[in-house]
Design goal:
By secondary structure, the protein is α+β, with helices and mostly antiparallel strands. The protein has two domains: 198 residues; 139 residues, Histidine kinase-like ATPase, C-terminal domain (Heat Shock Protein 90, 2-Layer Sandwich), CATH 3.30.565. Helices cover 66% and strands 10% of the residues. It is built from 15 helices and eight strands. The strands form two sheets. Strands 2-4-5-7-6 form a five-stranded mixed sheet. Strand 4 and strand 5 form a beta hairpin. The radius of gyration is 36 Å and the shape is rod-shaped. The relative contact order is 0.09.
């Protein structure tokens, strides 16, 4: 049985032989990373859309000035387009260094876009320019990329710009062949309105389709992550069951092995002693059957999403009563008043049992469990008078097979799944102290 226990620990802690150890490090941080990656992809799409817009404005201004021979303030417009190119280059560079200020940078970029479009429209007729509809693009982009308040700021900016342009703008001097023919000038305005609609609709469709692709890609990654987390829960439960088997079956199987070895080496004992040994063997077999039945029952219980709330003191008392380690467990309620309720699940109960097993294997003669409140958390502090933790474990090194390694790995993984944490320390008077940090889900 000792070889089985050592093999179980080796399988759990040798990352070369058990790659799932590294996979169990997956947390909600990865989901956040996936969302940030989708956000960066959306912003990259915005950068490309701005390149198309700059190119479109350049072509439109060149066509109107050169082909239609309509006089425009070319140099101010050209300077503004160069400024927009510089702004977009900065935005493209910023995508290579993503950080928490991306949304504020997007607000600033969109405000620059609104201001630039307002200036171009002011220089080209103001409210009479048929390309006033381009303001809707900034509102659409803001609605997709920004939180509601910031998107509302961009929307208000576009509305204010439109209202200001209604009464402001430099008049456009149409050439003679347009100004003397009223219908031709009106037709030119209608053509501009059509081009404005086409340009706005095309960019909006391209942007929305790109956003849909990015969202689909993000959802697929999140789905894969959720599936991997579920698989990790199964692995964790199997690890807990394997650790339980190594601890709970070790003593009865060792007793059976000793008796049978004596019979092989020394022969059958006298009848009265033989009957006592047979009774001990029957007790050991019954213990093994009971433990295996319990593990099979536990293995079929619902997952964490079907866990229930429980008082932590009652939970610890129940685990201590079910635990058959032979070491006395003292339970203290150090909370000042009625405490909160924590999430009770098989992962937590097996984690506590593993801590008790570790304390016993470390030579503890007594175990004390204290339940305390700490802000929004409930602390379950398990103390023993055993040999304590090696410095390597306290410093966060990879756990090695030994009295504490197996249980600590399983306990830490179980608590992480429940949104909690684990801290370790050696007591000044000797022994180990393990603190389980559990979020409260209700208050009594």
């Amino acid at each position: 049985m000792r070889q089985i226990a050592l093999w179980t620990r080796k399988a759990l802690f040798d990352t070369k032989e058990a790659p799932f150890v590294q996979e169990l490090a997956m947390t909600d941080t990865q989901a956040q990373t996936i969302r940030q990656r989708a956000e960066v992809m959306n912003l990259r799409l915005l950068v490309w859309m701005r390149w198309f817009a700059i190119a479109g404005m350049t072509i439109a201004v060149t066509f109107v000035h050169a082909a239609l021979q309509i006089t425009l303030p070319i140099w101010p417009i050209a300077g503004l387009l160069v400024f927009l190119v510089a702004v977009n280059l900065v935005a493209a560079w910023r995508l290579r260094r993503p950080g928490g200020a991306l949304s504020r940078a997007v607000v600033a970029d969109l405000m620059v876009d609104v201001g630039a479009l307002t200036l171009i429209l002011y220089w080209t007729g103001g409210g009479t320019n048929p390309f006033n509809g381009l303001f809707i693009l900034q509102a659409i982009v803001a609605a997709f990329l920004l939180p509601p308040i910031q998107a509302g700021v961009i929307f208000i900016a576009t509305v204010v710009a439109q209202l200001w342009l209604l009464n402001n703008g430099l008049p456009i001097d149409l050439p003679m062949h347009h100004s003397h023919a009223g219908p031709s000038a009106f037709d030119l305005h209608l053509q501009g309105m059509f081009l404005s609609f086409f340009f706005s609709a095309a960019l909006a469709v391209l942007f929305i389709l790109g956003i849909k692709d990015n969202l689909a890609s993000r959802d697929a990654r999140l789905e894969r992550l959720a599936r991997q987390i579920e698989e990790e829960k199964v692995v964790l439960r199997l690890g807990l069951m394997a650790g339980t088997a190594a601890h709970d079956l070790g003593t009865p199987l060792s007793s059976l092995a000793v008796i049978l070895d004596d019979w092989v080496d020394l022969g059958l004992p006298p009848p009265d002693r033989q009957m006592r040994q047979i009774a001990a063997m029957q007790t050991a077999v019954a213990t093994c059957r009971e433990r295996i039945s319990h593990m099979l029952t536990v293995g079929g219980r619902p997952r964490l999403d079907e866990a229930h709330g429980a008082d932590p003191v009652a939970l610890v008392r129940e685990v201590a009563e079910d635990w058959a380690g032979g070491t006395p467990v003292t339970i203290r309620d150090d909370r000042p008043g009625p405490g909160g309720v924590v999430l009770a699940d098989v992962l937590l109960t097996r984690a506590l049992a593993n801590l008790f097993d570790n304390a016993r294997e470390a030579g503890a003669k007594a175990i004390t469990v204290a339940v305390r409140d700490a802000g929004a958390q409930t602390l379950i502090v398990v103390q023993d008078d055993g040999c304590g933790f090696p410095q390597a474990i306290l410093q966060g090194a990879e756990p090695e097979p030994g009295p504490h390694g197996l249980g600590l790995f399983l306990v830490r993984s179980a608590l992480r799944r429940m949104g909690g944490g684990l801290s370790l320390a050696n007591r000044p008077e000797g022994g180990a102290e393990v603190t389980l940090h559990l979020p409260r889900i209700a208050h009594g």
